[in-house]
Amino acid sequence: METLRLLCDYFPTAVFTGKCLVLISEDWRVELTEHKDSDFSRSSTQPSVIRVRIFKKALNGEFVPGFYEDFQLPVLGELAEQIEKYVQLAIGTNLRENVE
User: Model-level pTM?
Assistant: First the structure.
């Protein structure tokens, strides 16, 4: 959860729920969850996997899961930039400009 807390500072419109970071708009919901590698034979220095899930609002008002991507970059700034780029291309809106 440490990486999610740090990403919360990068995405000022995000809400940390305790288990995921949520960015929500009128038409979209984006969830970021943190997953640790459960392979104990690997070095513990591996960065966490951040899964970005994108949901689109259906006609009935419910958010329908669309697609997801996993990110595992060791540098927080690069991780945040790549997540931001991915989400912007997927939903067609700038996350950082939605601060109102």
Answer: 0.84
